[in-house]
Design a protein that fits this description.
The chain is an alpha+beta fold and 151 residues long. The protein is 24% helix and 25% strand. It has a 4-stranded antiparallel sheet, covered by helices on one side. Helix 3 (73-80) crosses helix 4. The longest helix has 14 residues, at 129-142. The protein is elongated.
Amino acid sequence: MSDERGGFGRGERGRGRGRGDRGRGRGRGRGRGRGDRDENVWVPVTKLGRLVKEGKIGSIEEIFLFSIPVKEAEIIDYFLKDKLQDEVMKIMPVQKQSSAGQRTRFKAFVAVGDHGGHVGLGVKCSKEVATAIRGAITLAKLSVIPIRRGY
């Protein structure tokens, strides 16, 4: 017999996994990836997005001129990225009565603009304040319109 101290049914091989590794650490599922791709690269999904990224559309005014619907917030970021400012106008809790009481969600109103004649308003409701604000900013960018000034 060997000099080991025994253990519960380990035998002499020491192959038992005990309570340690419970099946994690193998395979390719989950995890944070290997870092070979960049996170914040915009991949356009609409025809307008592809035209903007390729540089075929020179300014946001061309989009407004032909009344093309903007379905990607990144298009607005592309043209107004450094000038665009957002302001949270109001955050208000809204409640829905359920059988177990009330369910509270938060409604965020956000305005975005570039102090140069472009304004958008976004409204989003979510279970968390931060998620509501983030979603409202995206919706506000999608609803940016030109404002006529000087009258």
